[in-house]
Amino acid sequence: MNTEDTRELLEEIDRYIEGLFGTSDEVLEATLRDSRRGGLPEINVSPNQGRLMRLLVEIAGVGRILEIGTLGGYSAIHLARGLPEDGTMLSLEIDEHHADVARNNIERAGLSDTVRVRVGDAHELLATLIDNDEGPFDLVFIDADKESYPEYLDASLRLVRPGSLILGDNTLRDGAVLDPKEATARAMREFNRRIAKDPGLSGIVLPLIRERIDGLTIARVL
Ligand code: SAH
Ligand code: DHB
Ligand code: MG
Q1: Which stretches of the chain are DSSP H helices?
Q2: pTM over 0.70
Q3: What is the phi/psi pair of residue 137, to 5°?
């Protein structure tokens, strides 16, 4: 099959799963619509990836989530839906406008009491979380500036407990990690390598398809 046909097939498979499990709904669609209207980049996780991450929250019995990179709150809504009644989520976002759009989306989703968005540079916000002993979180989802993933991993490791999950988005980038030419791909490769080599973690990179192939790195703290 040529590349174009392969891409079409990947998209069709993704849509098939989406239709089968109903991984989107009106609230999620409205979230994407208002994010688009607000001029936010369309770089949210896919509906199917959102469902996968929600399942991970449910399977691991996660009660406290930390997200690095909120954008319009799309992944936050998926993740927070997997939490129990008394669960909480903190999402870090550098851009005030993104955070505003996200808060509106989170409110429409009925999750205002569950999800807090904190505005600032994640490097600083994470340092503050560590200093103030605000952990442990049961799941950390890393999805902000790609060059910082190795640093975000270090910070995350100080905010978790045995049994916690650490997830990293966009860790395959259409195969760019195989032979990295840019700083972002190099950082991803380093992030994946560290997770694979850390004797305190058990993990995998899960290839995910959409219109292209990307990956979700999943690690469990031992
Ligand atoms: N998790 C979202 C997508 C996040 S996109 C979803 O799937 O729906 C990445 C986000 O990280 C953007 O909103 C960007 O503004 C934010 N970001 C980039 N650098 C950051 C930093 N240093 N600290 C905090 N957020 C950052
Ligand atoms: C892209 C996708 C993402 O999920 C992300 O966090 C950043 C960028 C992209 O497709 O460019
Ligand atoms: Mg992402």
Answers
A1: 3-21, 26-37, 47-59, 74-81, 96-108, 122-131, 149-157, 183-197
A2: yes
A3: -100, 150
